[in-house]
């Protein structure tokens, strides 16, 4: 413990003796973590959105007019047999019309012009959570398509597919960009520590001559790197939080008629702390790459 | 030290087939023209350089092939004093001296006690809180000697300890080194100062172009 305090004091002395270099490093780490943090908040909310959309994934099986009870029962059995169905509801033609009328609201009178009910009866299928993906829905659709009772199967497939595809691409881009940014931070911290090592070459030399182990010499540098990374990440993410509070906290994302809008959320505190700790880790790693080759005396 | 060869690169041979012996508690001088290998010899003894060929026995242990991790432990048993003092300008005299104990993780109280003792020995206890650049050359060298002694090393190496000092201050350091030797410390001093060497009447190891030309053995 006394040792840790000693190393910490040395690390702080390092920072105090070259405050400008330290400030530039902290600022750079902060900017990188501002970008990373923003991307992270966006990703967090996209994740929430995905979850909501997946929960809402439903399959609608329209029944042929005049399909008899046995045929409908066969379709139902086929659906249940897949083991992916959480809820199965039969919607009669009249019920469908009533629901439609309700949605149209004041324009419901339009329906009266039609005279007869144009809507078919249908089966409304809610999936089990593990099957809630475009592929899961499609598999279910394939299971009943072509049965005598089935007229058509709908699940909004084209837009959902595109949405999930776009999400996948965004995720990939996010990871790539994040990786690049983290790499850049590593280089920056690594350079700072290298400057710090150069500035203290004589001191390191003397320490080693009086019998300091490598570890003793390196520890303050590691602490310095981790400290700069931690402070930089804290500042960057703090700024993200402030910006989020100012501009995004009140925003609601409309999810179409009938669905509650999605409130944008900041990631939970534990995750934020982990993220900031990631800054310390980046600082530590940057120091590692710097000391790795520059401390052989 | 038996048949030791050392070089700083293919074209720069520092020590050539050096064989010598220094007894416990002995005081020897290493002399010779510049570039003869005096400094290399001292650096080799404290393992700041490694020999390519040959054997080096220290404290009864062959350290020629000592692992890197063992080197710091060995250095704590050897004090070293340099011509240019090698003090840390941003640390006080006290901090400069105590650094040798700090690297070993000694308790704070022991560090304070021991540092006070050696500063008293070199007559600088009243300058404990001063910074080295504000001291005279002689005082700085005494700080360096205090730092070298703070671990009670059985061996003290001094590389031109008075090279940067005028005659008066040199005499001061000579006296201090004599005192240290009198306490039983093995002393190896590299110097150009022929007057000092002559007046002290100790064994002289003469080096020329990396070779020992005389004085390698206690009786030779």
Task: Explain the overall architecture.
The complex is a heterodimer of chains A (297) and B (220). Chain A has two domains: 2-53 and 161-294, no CATH class; 58-154, Alpha-Beta Plaits (2-Layer Sandwich). Chain A has helices at 2-17, 19-55, 69-81, 93-104, 109-114, 134-144, 157-199, 201-209, 214-247, 269-294, and strands spanning 58-63, 85-91, 122-127, 150-154, 252-253, 262-263. Chain A is of the alpha+beta class and 297 residues long. Chain B has 220 residues and is an alpha/beta fold. Chain B is 33% helix and 22% strand. Chain B contains seven helices and eleven strands. Chain B is globular, with a radius of gyration of 17 Å. Classes of the chains: A alpha+beta (297), B alpha/beta (220). Chain A binds chain B through residues 2-3, 6, 17, 202-203, 205-214, 216, and chain B through 46, 48, 68-69, 72-76, 80, 86-88, 90, 99-100, 102-105, 107-108, 147, 151.
Per-chain topology:
The complex is a heterodimer of chains A (297) and B (220).
Chain A (H helix, E strand, L loop, with lengths): L1 H16 L1 H37 L2 E6 L5 H13 L3 E7 L1 H12 L4 H6 L7 E6 L6 H11 L5 E5 L2 H43 L1 H9 L4 H34 L4 E2 L8 E2 L5 H26 L3
Chain B lengths: L1 E6 L5 E6 L8 E5 L6 H8 L7 E3 L1 E2 L2 E2 L8 H5 L2 E4 L11 H10 L5 H14 L15 H13 L5 E5 L7 H16 L3 E5 L3 H7 L2 E6 L2 E4 L6
Parallel strand pairs in B: 3-9, 3-10, 7-8, 8-9
Antiparallel strand pairs in B: 1-2, 1-4, 5-6, 10-11
Q: What are the segments of chain B in which pLDDT stays under 50 over at least 5 consecutive residues? A: none
Mean pLDDT of chain A: 82
The largest inter-chain interface, given as chain pair and residues per side, is:
A-B, 17 and 24 residues
What's the rounded overall pLDDT mean of chain B?
A: 90
Order of helices and strands of chain B: EEEHEEEHEHHHEHEHEE
What count of helical segments of chain A does DSSP give?
10
User: Per DSSP, what share of the residues of chain B sits in E-state strands of 2 or more residues?
Assistant: 15-25%
Over all CA atoms, what is the radius of gyration of chain B? 17 Å
Q: Give start-end ranges of low-pLDDT stretches of chain A.
A: none
Please provide the count of β strands of chain A.
6
Reported for the largest beta sheet of chain A, the result is:
4 strands, antiparallel
- The oligomerization state is heterodimer
* N-to-C span of chain A: 27 Å
| DSSP strand count of chain B | 11
What structural class do you assign from the helix and strand content of chain A? alpha+beta
Fraction in helix of chain B: 25-40%
Q: What would you report as the Rg of chain A, rounded to the nearest angstrom? A: 30 Å
